[in-house]
Amino acid sequence: MMGTRMGKILASLDIGTNSTLFLLAEKQSDGRISPIHHDVRTNDLGRGLGSDGNLTPETIELNLRLLRDFRDAAQQAGAAEIRIAATEALRRAGNAEVLIGRADRELGLHIRVISGEQEAALTFQGILSGMSDPAMKIIAADIGGGSSEVVHGEGGKLLEAKSLPVGAVSMDRRHIRHDPPQPEEIEAVRAEAYEVFRRLPDTFRANEADLVICGGTASSLAAADLELVSYQPEKIAGHVMTREGLELFIHQFSRLSLEERRRIPGIGWRRAEIILPGTILISELLRVL
């Protein structure tokens, strides 16, 4: 994984509703940060919320194992620091402190649960860092598992940020009951997504702004559109899709069983479970904007 490095090695973990993202990066003396390794694991936090609003014991144990694996990888790489942020699932879980406390006591890891507004601002900074022209006017959205963050910025400055309570996992849990899903279930996802997104302020509807979508659903759709058998971030980044293309995917996904969706190149075994509501969310956001 690692060769000889001159800079300071840093590690970060992003604990989402569906996945935990691990990043190792090197901080150069001039302040530049260069990614050197990344990994993503399904954490089932969204599905592990019981009817009482608490994480199940099995879900807590799964996430402690993931955190231990990532901590060990960071230490092996010589990381000087591990920063961990958690989002919607741990914002909502009634017993989130059980997982947070055990991670601290048993693993020496401090999990910081950030607000929706902080998550949206970090989304903007992350997207900005990967753009060729950071001064351009953009609207960006991170379609997550439990929430979606939509931000508006220009000239490298964040102008407005909204965190909305709709995500691929939460929409799947609320509306999808059959495999393949029934037409009325798909329409229920559409209706809720549209109702939430249409309440965005008019400042998000500037026609001259470029729209950038990030997150696991967006990456999987780009990979499927490119028919990639393996994950290739250099090809996925910057890939352009239209709403018409998204609707073709929705039409395809809605007619397939879970096992059939899993066989689509680029989608992935676990992403196939929530790719349909995630795609509908992106399409309805484009409809509103």
Describe the fold and architecture.
By secondary structure, the chain is α/β, with parallel strands linked by helices. It folds into two domains: 8-113, 2-Layer Sandwich (Nucleotidyltransferase, domain 5); 116-288, Nucleotidyltransferase, domain 5 (2-Layer Sandwich), CATH 3.30.420.150. The chain is built from eleven helices and nine strands. The protein has helices at 57-76, 88-92, 96-107, 116-129, 168-175, 183-197, 216-225, 233-236, 243-254, 258-261, 275-288; strands at 8-15, 19-27, 33-42, 81-86, 111-113, 138-143, 148-154, 157-164, 210-214. The strands form two sheets. Strands 3-2-1-4-5 form a five-stranded mixed beta sheet. A four-stranded mixed beta sheet has the order 8-7-6-9, sandwiched between helices. A hairpin with a 5-residue loop joins β2 (19-27) and β3 (33-42). α5 (168-175) crosses α6 (183-197) and α7 (216-225) crosses α11 (275-288). The model has no long low-confidence stretch (mean pLDDT 92).
Brief account:
This protein is of the alpha/beta class and 289 residues long. Helix content is 41%, strand content 21%. It is built from 11 helices and 9 strands.
SSE arrangement:
Elements: E1 8-15, E2 19-27, E3 33-42, H1 57-76, E4 81-86, H2 88-92, H3 96-107, E5 111-113, H4 116-129, E6 138-143, E7 148-154, E8 157-164, H5 168-175, H6 183-197, E9 210-214, H7 216-225, H8 233-236, H9 243-254, H10 258-261, H11 275-288
Parallel strand pairs: 1-4, 4-5, 6-9
Antiparallel strand pairs: 1-2, 2-3, 6-7, 7-8
Helix pairs in contact: 1-3, 5-6, 5-11, 6-11, 7-11, 9-11
